[in-house]
Hints:
The protein has 3 domains: 114 residues, Orthogonal Bundle (Butyryl-Coa Dehydrogenase, subunit A, domain 1), CATH 1.10.540; 107 residues, Butyryl-CoA Dehydrogenase, subunit A, domain 2 (Beta Barrel), CATH 2.40.110; 146 residues, Up-down Bundle (Butyryl-CoA Dehydrogenase, subunit A, domain 3). By secondary structure, the protein is of the alpha+beta class. Strand 2 and strand 3 form a beta hairpin. The protein has a 4-stranded mixed sheet. The chain has a 4-stranded antiparallel sheet with strand order 2-3-7-6, with helices on one face. The chain has a two-stranded antiparallel sheet with strand order 9-10. The two termini are 35 Å apart. The structure holds flavin-adenine dinucleotide (FAD).
Amino acid sequence: MDFSLSEEQRMIKDSVRKFAQERIIPYAHQWDHEGKFPRELLYKMGELGYLGVPIPEEYGGAGLDYISEAIVFEEVGYADSSVRTTLSVQMSLVELTILKWGTEAQKQKYLPNLCSGQSIGCFGLTEPNAGSDAGNISTSAKRSGDGWVLSGQKVWISNGTWADVAIVFAQTEPGSKHRGMAAFLVDTKTSGFTSRKMTGKLGLKASDTGELFLDNVQVPESALLGKVGEGFKIAMSALDNGRYGVASGCVGTAQRALDVSVRYAKERIAFDKPIASFQMVQDMLAQMKVDVEAARLLVYNAGWVKNQGLVSTIPVSIAKLFATEAAKRNADMAIQVHGGYGYSDEYEPEKLWRDCRVASLYEGTSQIQKLIIGRDLTGIAAFE
Ligand SMILES: Cc1cc2nc3c(=O)[nH]c(=O)nc-3n(C[C@H](O)[C@H](O)[C@H](O)COP(=O)(O)OP(=O)(O)OC[C@H]3O[C@@H](n4cnc5c(N)ncnc54)[C@H](O)[C@@H]3O)c2cc1C
């Protein structure tokens, strides 16, 4: 495997980095305090092709490979995890899921607007009583005439109050768990569909997180994504893409934690010397560097597998598990390098630490990634 970047990948990296330095980094702290970032940012990112990186050009995407996608997530993740989360959900969980499972009419209807940023998507799987145990959802889908009626509640849905279209997972046969699940593409303006912003989060404050309420929402048969009974498979395939985005974004976070720490260590004087001259500070920096490099290689490995069109579940789980934990370790270490100042919101590490804490929770906790890897190793599923 050769992980050197192609000319095209290098150009994307430079272009997203420049965009992030000019349009995201200077404002990220303000957005964190305000609890939102401007909607217009997504229009601009859509114009530049950042919202549809791996989507074919015929559907409005950039038609690029999965390493290019990882590069975009890494650079945006370097700048701000809230914006990266919004982008991950849009591109990995919504667009790629419609691309894989949608009919031609669904692809034509949704993908161009999602890629351009004219439309925002969300992914509605988690419920108050079903997170890791996604097969246990209770949102119901009942046949009605030649369509369906959906009722239930979703929680912790990123882009939840912003979304124009929601992928909603529902149960068509109560008690049948995975076997009866189905996925629906629901326009959020449909009567009976409401959402409410969730507040009080530890971090990722500028990212929209919402609850969705479906009160007898009537959708036509054409809203069904895939077939009845394929819902769980669709959710898991979407998470294969989503986890890759989270892992890539966390490489950016881990790199940022390292960069700000190296800079600070060279500037901060203690015992008449820059703290960078102390071996134990270099020990922290070296450990952070190893974490960043290892995380990036695991992401590129998973991207390579995806580019070959092979099943990527295990390499993606490994990359997600390692990169999210590495980002948390690096953000924590960055606070240590900064001493007391690391505890202040006037310096970078505090926000990095708060923002990346969620990465080992959403899209499958670290424990769930270990169970997926363990099942592959032993042939025994420890979570069924
Ligand atoms: C900011 C944010 C954004 C999110 N965005 C979305 C979104 O866009 N769409 C969406 O659908 N969901 C979203 N989620 C939900 C997220 O995916 C879930 O929170 C996550 O899957 C965990 O589910 P849970 O919170 O119900 O925890 P639980 O499933 O209750 O888990 C609690 C603890 O038990 C452990 N555990 C559970 N089962 C097992 C087991 N079998 N073996 C070992 N340990 C186990 C878990 O690892 C965890 O440590 C988001 C969450 C957050 C916080």
